[in-house]
Amino acid sequence: xxxxxxxxxxxxxxxxxxxxxxLALTLPAHAETAAPACDAPLDLIRxxxxxxxIAKKLTLGEPITIVAIGSSSTAxxxxxxxxxxxxxxxxxxxxxxxxxxxxxxxxxxxxxxEVPDMLARFDSAxxxxxxxxxxxxxxxxxxxxxxxxxxxxxxxxxxxxxxxxADADVVLIxxxxxxxxxxxxxxxxxxxxxxxxxxxxxxxxFRRFDVMRHWRDVAHLEFETFVxxxxxxxxxxxxxxxxxxxxxxxxEAAQRPVMSATAASHLVP
Length: 269
Hints:
By secondary structure, the protein is of the alpha/beta class. The chain has one domain (47-253): SGNH hydrolase (Rossmann fold, 3-Layer(aba) Sandwich). It is 48% helix and 10% strand. It has a 5-stranded parallel beta sheet with strand order 2-1-3-4-5, sandwiched between helices. Helix 5 (86-97) crosses helix 14. The longest helix is centred in the C-terminal third of the chain and has 19 residues, at 236-254. It is globular, with a radius of gyration of 18 Å.
């Protein structure tokens, strides 16, 4: 149950709505074809927890470093150029939210990797960059290869421990909703495992799978609109739309009011 009183909930809702309003804007079209609107319900976009390390940098006006680690959909397979990958687009989006700040989003995606592969390079690829925020995209390749999920929760927790030791915020990013992913019987189980682990570890999760499913099932977009011809990877439009949603989510979470324990103790449960 929320600890906010009605007035606080209204103020937060208004603030969140203002930050997320840009999601309904149409992204630039390629050539002469009009691009579909980029939107998703706020409950799919909003991060569950504040981002205290980013918030501190915002308050101090200091440079912000974000590391995006993952597999091919972080590296940018399906994008027309490095500038069209989600980390590159995210940097653009965050500069629009915070134009006076220096924000650097470092792309550490490597195609084909699974969680153990990423963990093996966490120290050099993530910790060495001294990030304020780590975006960890995971799960897709294990699903595609039919690898068992038994140990994945423990491996994810190992990675989260490394990120916490680096004194950084973290947002997990689950698999993409694409034909080759959803055809696998373990796809939904992987999404559920990542969600459960995020809740147990009290870290944020960007629900990419559900956002992309919304595009298909609710917005009625064809897969060809947001998935590359390979039936697996995202394309320029979906990477840009993902970055727009994630950028708004990060901006809202980093500026979210955090109630003190004293104030919270005066509220009726």
